[in-house]
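Recap slide: Insulinase family protein, sequence and predicted structure.
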Amino acid sequence: MKRHLRTFLLLFFSSLSLSLLPPAGAQITAPAPAQEKPQQFTLPNGLTLIVKPDRRAPTAVHMLYVRVGAMDEVDGTTGVAHVLEHMLFKGTKTTKPGEFSRLVAALGGRENAFTTRDVTGYFQQIPANKLEDVIRLEADRFANNQWPDDEFKRELEVVKEERRSRTEDNPRSLLFEQLSAVVYQASPYRRPVVGWMNDLEAMTPQDAREFYRRWYVPGNAAVVVAGDVDPAQVRRLVEKHYGSIPARAVPPRKPREEPQQNGVRRLEFKAPADQSYVALAFKVPQLRTFDKTPENDDALALTVLSAVLDGYDGARLDRALTRGPDRVADSVDAGYGLWGRGPQLFTLSGVPAAGKTPEQVEAALREQVARVAREGVTEAELQRVKTRWIAGEIYKLDSVMGQARELGSAWVMGMPLDSDTRLMARLREVTADQVKSVAARYFGDDQLSVGILRPLPVDPNRKPRQPAAGARH
């Protein structure tokens, strides 16, 4: 629940300035550039390969997705998935700590990695004629990652400093971390991706090594390649470098379903801050397939509701809460996760204006949803958000990295390769009545958790913390 609040919209707008979007009601008539369809293969050892040719520039993206994240940790070792991501840069039998990044840079490329609740990913963007070099490097560290204990201890200090600078020094990040622990009881989404500090303090090199051996197996991973490439050649290269990695069973995952909530949950959180803040989290359905089921239909309607409330400049929340002499908030947000390996939330949040309270912002946010439940939304609003999504579909093709990430994310969720096309088609079908219906059914107290940041005085002499040396992302 970071600034996850516009996640779905950002997926489509990542390569597009809002100023370039057409006005509401405009028709998109220019066809998208011709694109080759992605192809998917499965190696004998269980590794998935997805290839998406895009020959407009002599560049390629290579990504390795491992279907493991913070949700696969156990209590006492929170943060180990993220720590292990850092350790993948610390060497193999044939490469020294830090050498991976130096070699990619020497190829004229850039690289990094990320960890979320659902997945750990590693990526490189390089000239297309250097693709085999990064395939070889990534396959080597996936299969042969190793490092001395002292290297682990040094990198663990980097991660702890990362937690301090990104979470502990940020009162809103702390609020959302605490709120997640209140929202979820059984779901592992209650744990922070970076880990609790006491778990980081107690983490051992063996914790990371065991997590690596357990989850970094071919059947739990996918290689995604996009760019100026030939699928048959990519398949040969991947089979050459990844194919010899021995197959091992993917560990079984037990279901950890969230129990039904009965009544609103509230969190009062105090921290040094300039302004108070309020966040509302509602438990709602998520998209599991593209089949026409009540749950999937509701998930799509919730996506449209999020966009109607806060999908563009001057959307409902902005107009109603942040403008005029009687405005109640300085800023507001709405968002919906749509899909994930764990349960998803619909979130509303805001910063009270001068003289206003978090409770007033909470009431105003809920009133806007209640208004949709009473009065519905207009066809003009629906057309506006749908037009923007279609524009985003066209412009996102400019990003080879974006195409690769979208394919990898779909694989993580068990979705088909053409998820983007199917999603657009299903969103176009959402009606005003469906949006009105979900606004009426999913925003009561029994689905709600509220977090309020109560500001404490800020030390005027405190200096901003410097970014951790060696921190990635």
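The longest helix spans residues 149-168.
The chain has a mean pLDDT of 91.
(End of recap.)
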